[in-house]
Predict the structure of HTH rpiR-type domain-containing protein.
Amino acid sequence: MKLKWDLSKLTPSQKRIADFIEKSGERILYYSETELAQALQVSNATISRFWKNIGFGNFKSFKADLMEKEQLSPENKLRNSLLQIQSNDLLLHEHLLTMTRNQLANTLRELDQEQFKEAIEVMSNCRKLYIHAPASAEGLAALMKHRLARFGLEIEMLPKSGHELFESLMHLRKEDVVFLFGFVAMNREAGVLLDYAKSANYKTIVMTDCLISDYQDEADYIFYTNRGELWEFHSMIAPTFLVENFILGIGQHLENNSLSNLQRLSELRSQYKDQLPRHR
């Protein structure tokens, strides 16, 4: 992270603060003012004056500006993760194992079992399941659709962006469910889908990597999944784990249907195995 500082306007104490911010990188976003004051052994008043001196109302507005300038770019996240692997002097797979264990533990800790069971029942009994999966979530959505279609669920992938979404909105009914992947922040399309649910009365389920977000007041069910620290390259292991649990839960809920459809699939494969051999 490299910010532009006008050193002529900074006192010696404020230069120490600026130096600490530069050395902390994106981790500065996780500090409170009190923690920052303690780390630098200065008063809270000194920290508060610092933000005004560099053109911000407070620490919160400084953080917001830092985010807006895309200091947390994919390139920087990957670099931070690679540096962490090197600095820990660990084999790559050992670092990933530790990181994954922590992400899964954090995901499970925040999981509301009752909400999870309700969401499975809602999806199992819906007329049609719509999935909205922008950006990196597209692979998760494809996995979900592939597995759940075997259980006899009718599934449609919603357009990721733009006016094409209206073509799908007009078909949504109160018996339907919209499953949204909402990583990092709520996009405009997700906002429209959640807002329209208020009048169309379909259920909405959100999987997000944010504990605090705009989704909280809008969705019927929200499930948190940990994808790593803000400054790291984000992993999809914990989200995949949660998606697999949704699939297994729905398969169990629709046990008779699931087994019947899977048996039919096996029969079709056996019948046409010579004409359509499996890819190796």
